[in-house]
Amino acid sequence: MVFVGCVSLPKQTGQLNILLGNQIAESKLTHLNLIDEWSNERRERAEQFLEYRWIPTFIMKFMDESGEPYINLKSAIKNDCKPTITDEIKEITSAISKQIEKKRLELINAINDQTKELKEKIILHYAETERMHRIITANLNSVIKGQEFEKQIREAMVRPLKEIAPIEKSSKILDELFKEVK
Predict the structure, then answer these.
(1) What is the CA radius of gyration of the chain?
(2) Is residue 134 within 8 Å of residue 15, measured between CB atoms?
(3) Vertex 102 angle, CA 80 and 118, to 5°
(4) What is the pLDDT of residue 48?
(5) Alpha helices in 50-84, H assignment, sequence order
(6) CA distances from 145 to 113, 151, 169 (A)
(7) Which of 77, 102, 101, 103 is nearest to 89 (CA)?
(8) Terminal CA-to-CA distance of the chain, rounded, Å?
(9) Tell me, what's the pLDDT at 24?
(10) 133-158 pLDDT, tens digit each
(11) What is the distance between the alpha carbons of residues 51 and 43, in angstroms, rounded to a whole number?
(12) Burial 30-58 (b: 16+ CB within 10 A, else e)
């Protein structure tokens, strides 16, 4: 049997593999943090949208005396009892607040759903990347093990025949048997 060549891995290969693993972990964390920042920015924009656009428009439509929400609320207040202006203001304020919170919850839930979906995609992407890195690591470890086995084989191949199969000792045993005559 002849063994030709010897594969060897430079020390830098192992170091680069470790560096690659660290870069994958850092990149994953960075991307997840970017999604968190994006989500926070979207929440701020939702609050600004509510405060500067949606709430003023909603209140104007709500308070339009010809509008359905206002008419329904006024008739509900009148049916309860003899309303005072204070009671009417409380009911209007409460109804407006409920609608604002409903819209805020709708926006925040949509942002949370999108954030969750984006994070799931990042986690799935990096799970595949980490799997590939584990395969590289396993292959590098396999090469290293193969090199260790090759070294053992080479050492075994250079052992003298008298250590592997002591012919001289076996010959002496047989010679002794040949000497005996019974």
Answers:
(1) 41
(2) no
(3) 170
(4) 97
(5) 55-63, 68-80
(6) 47, 10, 36
(7) 77
(8) 45
(9) 94
(10) 999 999 888 888 888 888 888 888 88
(11) 12
(12) ebeeebeeebeebbeebeeebeeebbeeb
Q: At what angle do helices 68-80 and 55-63 cross, to 10 degrees?
A: 60
**Tens-place pLDDT, residues 25-74:** 999 999 999 999 999 999 999 999 999 999 998 888 877 765 555 555 65
Alpha carbon distance 47, 83 (integer Å): 34
Average pLDDT over residues 112-137: 96
Return the H-helix or E-strand segment holding 24: helix 11-49
- Please tell me the pTM assigned to this model: 0.65
pLDDT value at residue 5:
46
Structure tokens at 27: 């990149």
